[in-house]
Design goal:
One of its GO terms (molecular function) is DNA binding. InterPro entries: Integrase_recombinase_N. Keywords: DNA-binding, Membrane, Transmembrane, Transmembrane helix. It is a single chain. The protein is mostly helical. The protein has a domain of 89 residues: DNA polymerase, domain 1 (Orthogonal Bundle). Helices cover 70% and strands 0% of the residues. α3 packs parallel to α5. The longest helix is centred in the first third of the chain and has 21 residues.
Amino acid sequence: IVHRGSWRRLQLESCALRERGLAHGTWENKISHLRQYIAFSVYYGVPDFPIHLGILLRFIALLGRGPLAHKSATNILSSIRWFAALIAPASVKVFDSVLVSVSLKGLKAQLSRPVRQKLPFTVMHLCTFF
């Protein structure tokens, strides 16, 4: 037997848990990524929404110029896709284009950095230290 008061209380607690699940920093990151895209579109004088394929490819090229990790660039594009789904749902198809996926592969290759490896100590190194 479920009491009405406790059921309603559980429902409110589950809503509160979902709201806490999306951290405040997540929203700040999404808004920051949207600001980056809007600044790009204002600077180059292109429409921001709906997103066109050529504009998105140029934005990806701009992301490749900076000192970002590939995951950061992917996160930025994910946030922009999320806002595009809210503002102009028809422009979400652009993100599924083959050209975008190929550009993201190229971006990953461009932003990848070689792993730094330290050479093993030799007798010469030890003689220098001591």
